[in-house]
Amino acid sequence: MAENAQIEKLSFKLRLKAWWEGYDAEEYLLHLNGNPQDKKELPPPKKNTPPVENLPPLEWTEKRIELAQLIWGEGYCGPGGSEYVKSLSKMLCLTDKMSVAVIGAKLGGPTRVLADEFSSWVSGFEISNELVKRGNELSLEADLKDKAVLVKYDPVSDEPFERKFDRCFAKETIYSIEDKPVFLKKIFDNLKNDGLLLITDYCLLNEESMINSDVQKWQMQETTAPFFITEKEMKKNLEDAGFNVRVNEDISEDYIKIISKNWAGAEKILASLSPQDEMDSLQIIMKDAESWNLLSKLLSDKHIQVRKYLAHKK
To answer: Measured by CB atoms within 10 angstroms of the end CB, which terminus of the chain is less buried, N or C?
Structure first.
């Protein structure tokens, strides 16, 4: 009875730690706290399974934004980081005279990296009001309020871009746009001649992957509904828009490593939570952990790929 109460009391923290190491919470607790004579020996860890199921998608609240940055780093709410963005952006050949559009800017981490590293003039376009607000606060704190500006922008609207750009970077965002050909043509028309478009995005391995139950589950967990296509369809959409596709590469392995590395620090974050914030924060972390773990599984099983495209406007 006491053991069941302990499992219930520690369920969120214990299940996250046990899940990350590949064990059931119950057997993990017995291993940690069992009597010496009957202390449970852990079997070999099994493949991770999501710790929480059937929770509704999370919106970007102040608390979730704060917790996301503890996982991913200041200015980020998903895989990335300044070194990762710098490495990707080398292909854009940026200078301090160039203007850049970042589509799906989130908290503006990539916009600030490009503005700071290359002194380019960067506009970040993001659909979430909450992320735009906090992202602009971070740009102000970094003394980049004029060179790394975030604006509210709905990619499915008829709203035009503010100007033509030399370069464009779309980081894991086009997958959430249903009419990709129209949007890619819009980007093409708003790039200057000889402009470059860098895309990292989720693509299906093939059409059969769409009926995979885990793919469908991950779709339902996302705040913004994904509209998946295959990498071949993405390449064709880019070419139909007028682009010459120079790079088409699977970067899933690197992406999986980034997810694993960042979430490995979740235990320290849990330990730092104050008692009054603990329950709400734990539920947010567990829900996000479920989604990222499921995505990692889909990437490992190759139902979904993260692909990198570099497209040129002749």
So the answer is: N
Backbone angles phi, psi at 18, to 5 degrees: -65, -45
By C-alpha distance, which of 180, 233, 194 is closest to 95? 194
CA distances, 73 to each of 124, 169, 172, 244 (Å): 18, 20, 17, 34
Residue 271 — pLDDT band, cuts 50, 70, 90? confident
| 125: β partners | 103, 151
Query: H-helix or E-strand containing 15?
Result: helix 11-21
Phi/psi at 38 (5° precision): -125, 20
Supply the pTM of this predicted model: 0.83
The verdict on 71 and 30 lying in the same domain is no
Provide the pLDDT for residue 249: 97
Which residues form the domain of 19?
A: 1-49
Alpha-helix residue ranges (DSSP H) falling in 73-166: 82-89, 109-118, 129-141
Helix 62-72 to helix 275-300 angle (10° resolution) is 60
With H, G, I as helix, E, B as strand and everything else as coil, classify residue 178.
coil
Residue-wise over 27-49: b if at least 16 C-beta within 10 A, else e? Answer: ebbbeeeeeeeeeeeeeeeeebe
- Helix-helix angle 2-9:25-33, to 10 degrees: 120
Partners of 307 in the β-ladder:
201, 250
Shared domain check, 170 and 119: yes
74: DSSP letter: T
pLDDT digits (tens, 9 = 90+) for 78-128: 998 999 999 999 999 999 999 999 999 999 999 999 999 999 999 999 999
Question: 214 and 113 share a domain?
Answer: yes
Same domain, 231 and 132: yes
The owner of tokens 């004029």 is 146
- Alpha-carbon gap, residue 19 to 14, rounded angstroms: 8
The one-letter amino acid at 280: D
- φ, ψ dihedrals at 124, nearest 5°: -100, 130
Q: Does 225 lie in the same domain as 182?
A: yes
Domains held by the chain: number: 2
